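Q: My labmate handed me this sequence with no annotations at all. I'd like to see what the chain might look like in three dimensions before we decide whether it's worth expressing. Could you predict it?
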Amino acid sequence: MVLREEKYRRNILQNNIKNLLDLLEQAQNKKDYETVAGYYMELGRAYKKEGNIPKLLYYLNRFDNLTGGDDNLYQKFKRDDMTYWLVDLETEYIPYERKIQQQVLEKSKDLNVLQKIQWVLLTMSRFCELFRRISVLPGFGGFEKLGRIINYFSEGIYGGLDKDKKDEIEDEIYGYNDLTDDIFDSSVMCDYTNKVKIPGQEDFVPADLEGGDNGGIGTDFFSSAYYDIKSFVYDKMPEDSRITMEFVPCGIMQDYYYRTSDSDIADEKKVKEEVNRIFSDYEFIKEEPDKEKFAGRIEGYKKIMLI
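A: Here is what I predict for the chain of 307 residues:
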């Protein structure tokens, strides 16, 4: 009898979650962000009751990102208990992507500053194909230039930039930095009507790039890593420089899977492939590859679709 009652309660909860997800999609399509924030809260509460911590954290972070980027929404929702759940959960629970991040940070301790920059740049190169596909969406024009920037960086970290075009290249690198920062801070990141079609699986939306404090591309991590590489190319960086190694596992793209799948993220085929690449890159840079070997690896990575 107890088992039957438990199954009944679980069915009610699952139906409630499905209804909330349908309502959330409707609000997202209408770009009614106050209602979207409200459904993020309700889904967080529903997944808390279900005991699904990864999904709970995902919707907590979506709520936090949305309300934190809008003064009106922040004032309306700032006292909600979800913000306290987020702090407590991120202290008590270590999600899969954070565990990979911790391993990366530990391994990076025995790398010099060039090797750290190389590791970061190898990860960034794997976003080229995704950014190319995103660039066709309204508000994302210019994203496709990441591949060109990666080429400059790959040359630059070995001191090989064309001296006659150095100023022109520098302007392009700084311009791309401004472009991505402006887009990451804009409302287009919250527009779920902007979708990238992926054959055979769920669509990708730009919000999947944001992640929460646990990672994602973590647009903040992307911007910081970009700045680090740019600084290495154009400025002298001391060996004790702080490099944004947190970006290295961002190719896991966990927010896409938390949004679209009920499977354990560690079991996702694409996630396994990316984790293997992350630690293969570590072994690669430990061997101190020359310019040609490094550029060859970059070229292969630029064709990869992360999801």
